[in-house]
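Field reference: sequence -> structure
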Amino acid sequence: MTLNTTTLKQTENPVADPKAVVTINNARFTVLTPQLIRMEWAEDGKFIDDASFVFINRKLPVPVFEKKWDGDWLAIKTEKLILKYKKGSGKFTGEYLSIELELNGKLVLWHPDVSDTGNLRGTIRTLDEVKGETPLDSGLLSRDGWTLIDDTKRPLFDNGNWQWVTPAPEKDYLDLYFFGYGHDYKQTLFDFTRVAGKIPLPPRFIFGVWWSLYWAYTDQEFKQLVHEFEIHDVPLDVLVIDMDWHETFNLRWGKTKRDQAGQPLGWSGYSWDKTLFPEPEEFLSWCQKKGLKTTLNLHPASGVQPHEEKYPEMARAMGIDPATKKYVPFDIVDKKFAENYLEILHRPLEKMGIDFWWLDWQQKNTTKIQGVNPTWWLNYVHFTDMEQQGKRPLIFHRWGGLGNHRYQIGFSGDTISVWESLAFQPNFTATASNVCYGYWSHDIGGHRPGEVSPELYTRWIQFAIFSPVVRTHTMRNPKAERRIWAYPVDYFLVMRDAFLLRYALIPYIYTAARQAYDTGISLCRPLYYDFPENGQAYQFKDQYMFGNDMLAAPITAAIDSNDMLAKKLIWLPQGEWIEWFTGTILKGPAQIERSFAIDEIPVYVKAGAIIPMQPKMRHTGAKPVDPLILTIFPGGNGATRIYEDNGNSPDYKSGEYAWTSVEHSSLGDGTKKVTIFPIKGNYSEMLKQRSYEIRLPLMFPPDSVTCNGQKISFTREENKVGWLYDGDKLMTIITTPKFNTNQTVEVTLKITESLQKNSGLLQGAPGKIARFKRVMPLLNSLWETEWSPDILIEAAQTGNRIGLHPENALQELEKLERDFPKILRQITALRKVNRKIVDKALAHLKGI
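Structure field:
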């Protein structure tokens, strides 16, 4: 289905064009799009034009529609819907109001008494204490073809410079929004963002690694931690400083004193604990020099207690005599309190260097204004405050309800550290896109009890790599460990490789984030967006699209101890898909069982896709993206666009950004051409020159390579102009000279006919070579009795030899194919030494 996102500017005007409105006595109908109609009924005949918490823009181009009368019956007909209403029939009922639409050639009739039984759900406020699956609230999409949003009791915004909440009017009133989009799920979400606001583009740094731990760190311990990240070559972008940054008064569960608000003393706080942070300014300055962003944890429910440094100033601002030592109650819907709360308590900390706030609100669900929960309004207040300061806003808090997609990032809460929790998170994350909440951040590893096995933690991190935010976390527990280098070295290396892959993928992820802003389609989303008429797209809930070109199906269960592999049933939609970590080419639609070693993640890339990537970095802003890496997967022609801006200003909303288009095509004579077009757009810090690194996996070495007509020579040196061959991945890597970004770059390479005819040998070969390497240590453990057979070692060295002599690639792969049965026989002969280990090795190889 084609998504219509044509140049429609979000004006955020809640008053609809009068031409879109049909009023009949106590009823008013507003045709917002051909598939979206607002339906109001008011006993007093007075309708509401103020923005609500969800619907902030009703001034859309008026769609074509006609209205006709048949006696007392009105019919409003758009291209997609027919609404019928009987004049003077009173409050909307199933007898006197209906809407018709077509779904897959069949008529669907809605009226107010019909239940939405096919709703595909949305998200919930938190996963606190959740262990496994939990029910989700309703979303914007339904297999029934329609959804209804009841906006009747939702609070409203006033029209001030900083819009503030006003309660919904107390009167007999209905305010309903009918979405009749059939299974055009993408258009539903796009149109929702037209009336409810776009999904903001977060700062680029949020897509890097976050360190978070509920622990009373000193500033020196934090510095040591960062040093450990550096010496273990693990990237890091965000340092989350949990609640112990402020005075906690020796807070202990079960031995808790209460503050004047009735909360645990020390749960809220705004004053640095100078024992832990003697000079906070120096520490935050050090973080900035390291390229780290910082956030502080807040539990604001206790208001401002008399022990706070800023208490006297805050008390006076709120009309309280500080001498009384009476605390300042938390009242976020009081505009005066909110303004003082931000200016007196938060602004000094922001000036010190705090980049954003972790609002870890966990108390109460109501405020003094009916219908306003503090989570929703805290999100709004902090986000829009950053907006007013000219920053690109960012908060970190729980979901407050529909409309909160405008205020991200989400903190999913304190999950239990078990496989069941991990198993639910892919579905939970992707389904949240059904309400445009595309940026959940999970406690990777789980929150409590905190201790996890190396395997579980590794798999959780692998899921995180293909999720919106990578933030490890756990509770205060000396046995809990989240430093990946503190795990056995084999697991550490796998987790570090996962982190490095995440950073390599930042250009792809950031482009998807911009697409979410433009289209309303989140980075992680269910398969049924693209395959709405295939039942398996709904059945395989633990799979999701990760951007436009990748399908992720994270491992969420333990390996089989018999073969060291985790089995997973995968559904691949129609088309050709490349299993990234093994190089296996698979065709859909198909339901297949695959097996994965601990260092393999089930990620499938569309054939012909171009995945933009970046060089290795300490943090996302460590250096410019130069070279820009383009990984081009086999399978026909392909094209993409890559988005860039300066990463952390709001100017992207006013045209400060650029796109780079790339195409590749295969010609009949074995020639492949890659074209990088001149960059379009402009922004501060935009590169005027850069080089390009083109990676072509599952391809034989080229006979010749040229760039803009100039020959590119073979080299064995990485990061040098020329081409080299990665024999383990069977991948050609071409590094170009630097070019002006405003010029076209064309790279061509030619594969000889004999190699083209044998391309089937490439299928799955990288996975085989990796498995040979993985089996060797297992068999080497048989020492002193036995050792890996020479033929196995030779097979494991295949990629190394090909990398040294690419011209021998065909002969090497033919030999590998011939030797495979011999390898299995020689390993089988070792059963007499240790049947259990040998059977494990055999199963590992047969699972290729």
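Note: The two ends are 36 Å apart (CA to CA).
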